[in-house]
TrEMBL record:
Family: Belongs to the TonB-dependent receptor family.
Domain annotation TonB-dependent receptor-like beta-barrel: ranges: 304-701
Name assigned to this protein: TonB-dependent receptor
Sequence segments annotated as region (Disordered): 501-523
Signal sequence interval, chain numbering: 1-31
Residues passing through the membrane, by range: none
Cellular localisation: Cell outer membrane
Domain TonB-dependent receptor plug as annotated: residue spans: 68-171
Assigned keywords, A-Z: Cell outer membrane, Membrane, Receptor, Signal, TonB box, Transmembrane, Transmembrane beta strand, Transport
InterPro entries: Beta-barrel_TonB, Beta-barrel_TonB_sf, Plug_dom, Plug_dom_sf, TonB-dep_rcpt-like
Coiled-coil region(s): none
PANTHER family: PLUG DOMAIN-CONTAINING PROTEIN, TONB-DEPENDENT RECEPTOR-LIKE BETA-BARREL DOMAIN-CONTAINING PROTEIN
Source species of the chain: Halomonas llamarensis
Topology class, membrane: Multi-pass membrane protein
Length: 741
């Protein structure tokens, strides 16, 4: 089936109106207030009463109840759990969430669920996709302050109501303005220090008021946090003798301003109107000093000192109208408009070994993104069936340009970094939540996505790529006992290429085997992925405890992988459709109060996952997914000291090593080894008075250094060259005072 609807053939305004007038099958609105993709909004109103055992334990109990009420397999993490260890950026707090890993010792930007590459994890904010001021389809979660988050839902098994990209799973971030009502206002202030880098701090607030039929919410934050991705790389020749290297100091400071207001007007005759504007701004200051070494790895060759300032802005609004058409039917219209920009300025001075200036250059880069997303949803109740029908579109644009001044003279812009990408996706979905019996609920749905993508380069040459996907899904929950649920899910999802990866541009990295340059490919096709999920959840101790076991399998067609080849003296990785792939694994999560064995106040919790994958390579043979760890997990212990009204926390995060071999396009192999990583975090959360809490934390107490080895081998397996990379990690201390009133 092909749609002719496109922003290139129909004016934007006409397309929006037309899309609103079409209504076809699907399920309840995504988690755009009050409910989420997991339909927790209604279920949350009928949850059992909560027994108070301490803020963290009570929060975990509430999360377990939300998990149990969902029609598909999910995990829920509440604000109190996320803030237990005082991480400022949400990405760091998500490390303890079941199945979450990151690519890199000091990175927490792009979530990887189930150990699979980040492009298979879909990130939604308040139930809807967000553009990020960059080219990736997933929102980088370190741009969201933990203090603005109400809860996070990790959806393992997809549904028709969700955009179709969550093959590994979907992370749905519900912000403070993403719930129907906020019972209390909050004000939080925090300060801390990142070892060897500098001070960090934050101020966040959330408040709400009501003026007759008008509800007003306002939440926001100002914060500064730091990262260091410094590393040392040493090269060795075929005989193992030193052959140069690079000492790289890479220290980053992030200053953020975030505002997320919300207005809602309830009328008797016209229904409910909602308006949710947002503004997210991240300014990154980076000191990047690279010291190139001669072959002896001691003598200085040259030094490059680059100061970089990158401003990333995302802003826009969601407007919604909802009206009851009859006692059993409801109509909702949404219009989501977003714009993102990344404006980067680089000022570089390169010095020779004797201190004389070798080169001075100033570079600029501007990335502009825009998305318009209209959607119409009709929901109906029919006896034991909850029916949903929806239609909409996602219209995206991506433009890039650049400039350079070298040694005081303007140079022509890089032609490969000036391009435009337009992508129009039209979708429709239908879903039926069927309460077959008191202990059996089946959710079936079908989603259609039709996409048209056009890439235009510097010379005006365009490349088009169209694709249609039918995405069926079935989820079932069977309550074998009042405390035990069996879950089943099967669904088809897809993965579209990153927008920048569709252009022929080259992103210059180190150009080594360990960190190759990245060149885009406009001829990429979307991947098609079939998935199966099986699970069992058991709840006990008044929902304070649970044990969950999940099995999953994914089958990939037209798998996209970065294929590395040597171009002169540099390595370049290009995304290509390499063939079929498979991934399967097992996940375990549990939380258990230890009162039954005489340890009152103690709660043990943990999660672990194992993933096995294989990719059919173009030249034959197979290998695991790139940079995929086999196993990962967390283990934690909370102790509620009742006389002090304090919860003490200890958490250990571990990711196993990576060992893999990849065939190179020009012959030979790239053999990579990354050692395992372990983090130890400590926290203390004390209720000083009614509504006043103090949380202290020390994170990454072990301060482990990650070692990596990359070897180029010839066709016989003999070593041609070796790169050894060492990247230290850093401890952090933080204190946060939170006042609810």
């Amino acid at each position: 089936m092909k749609f002719s609807l496109s922003s290139r053939s129909v004016p934007h305004s006409a397309l929006v109106v037309l899309t609103f007038l079409i209504t076809g099958p699907t399920q309840l609105a995504l988690a755009q207030t009050p409910s989420s993709p997991t339909q927790l909004g209604e279920d949350a109103q009928s949850l059992d009463p909560i027994t108070v055992f301490g803020e963290v334990d009570t929060s975990a109990q509430r999360a377990v109840q939300l998990k149990a009420s969902a029609p598909n397999s999910i995990e829920v993490i509440t604000a109190e759990q996320l803030q237990q260890y005082n991480e400022q950026a949400l990405g760091d707090a998500l490390r303890r969430v079941p199945g979450v890993t990151y690519d890199g010792a000091n990175r927490s930007r792009e979530v990887r669920l189930r150990g699979l590459p980040g492009e298979y994890t879909q990130v939604l904010v308040n139930g809807r996709p967000m553009i990020d001021g960059e080219s990736r389809r997933s929102f980088e979660v370190d741009r969201i302050p933990t203090g603005l988050v109400e809860r996070v839902e990790v959806v393992r098994s997809p549904r028709a109501s969700l955009p179709g990209q969550g093959a590994a799973g979907t992370v749905n971030i519900i912000l403070k303005n993403g719930v129907e009502q906020m019972p209390q206002s909050e004000l939080a202030v925090g300060a801390g220090y990142l070892e060897g880098n500098g001070e960090q701090g934050e101020l966040s607030f959330a408040t709400a008021t009501k003026a007759g039929p008008l509800d007003v919410m306002l939440a926001g934050s100002v914060q500064r946090f730091r990262r260091s991705e410094s590393k040392d790389e040493f090269e060795f020749d075929a005989g193992g003798s030193p052959d140069g290297g690079v000492l790289e100091l890479n220290e980053r400071r992030f200053d953020q301003i975030n505002l997320i207001p919300r207005l809602a007007l309830q009328t008797d005759q016209l229904g409910r109107f909602e308006f949710d504007p947002f503004y997210l701004r991240t300014t990154e200051f980076r000191d990047d000093i690279e010291t190139d070494l001669e072959a002896d790895q001691v003598t200085l060759k040259r030094v490059s000192n680059e100061n970089r300032e990158r401003v990333r802005e995302s802003y826009g609004f969601r407007g919604g109208w909802e009206r009851e058409l009859s006692p059993s039917a409801n109509l909702r219209l949404n219009l989501d408009w977003q714009r993102g920009e990344t404006d980067t300025e680089r000022d570089e001075t390169r010095l020779n070994a004797d201190g004389t200036v070798d080169r001075e250059r100033q570079r600029t880069e501007l990335i502009e993104l825009e998305m318009t997303r209209p959607e119409a949803i009709l929901t109906m109740q029919a006896q034991d069936h909850s029916l949903s029908f929806g239609v909409g579109a996602s219209l995206r644009g991506h433009d890039e340009t650049n400039g350079e001044i070298r040694d005081g003279a303007a140079r022509p812009p890089r032609e490969d970094r000036i391009f435009e990408i337009d992508e129009d996706i039209v979708f429709a979905f239908a879903e039926d939540v069927w309460n077959v019996r008191d202990n059996l609920r089946v959710t079936g749905g079908l989603r259609l996505e039709d996409s048209e993508t056009e890439t235009t380069d510097f010379f005006g040459v365009s490349t088009e790529n169209d694709a249609d996907f039918l995405l069926p899904s079935v989820n079932a929950v069977f309550s074998a006992t009042p405390q035990t649920d069996l879950r089943f899910g099967v669904a088809r999802t897809l993965r579209r290429p990153d927008l920048r990866a569709l252009s022929p541009s080259i992103d210059e990295e180190d150009g080594t085997a360990a960190d190759p340059d990245i060149q885009g490919n406009p001829r990429q096709d979307p991947e098609s992925i079939w998935g199966l999920d099986l699970g069992v959840d058991h709840y006990f101790a008044d929902n304070r405890g649970h044990v969950s076991l999940n099995l999953f399998e994914r089958m990939f067609e037209d798998k996209i992988e970065k294929f590395t080849e040597q171009d002169g003296n540099r390595f370049v990785a290009t995304p290509q459709n390499v063939g079929d792939a498979r991934a399967r694994g097992i996940e375990l999560s549990a939380r258990a109060p230890l009162t039954g064995i005489g340890l009152d106040g103690f709660t043990l919790w943990g999660n672990a996952g194992y993933t096995d994958s294989s990719v059919d390579e173009i030249s034959g043979g197979s290998r695991p997914f790139l940079n995929q760890p086999d196993a990962f997990g967390n283990l934690g212990l909370d102790y509620f000291v009742a006389p002090w009204n304090t919860t003490l926390g200890l958490a250990v995060n571990h990711v196993t090593s990576v060992d893999q071999t990849q065939q190179l396009d020009g012959g030979g192999f790239l053999d990579q080894s990354i050692e395992s990583r372990t983090r130890l975090d400590l926290s203390s959360s004390t209720k000083l008075a009614d509504g006043l809490d103090l949380t202290l934390s020390i994170t990454n107490l072990l301060g482990q250094t990650e070692d990596r080895v990359d070897q180029i081998l010839d066709n016989s397996g003999a070593v041609i060259s070796t790169t050894r990379t060492s990247e230290p990690t850093y401890q952090a201390a933080f204190a946060r005072l939170n006042w609810t009133y």
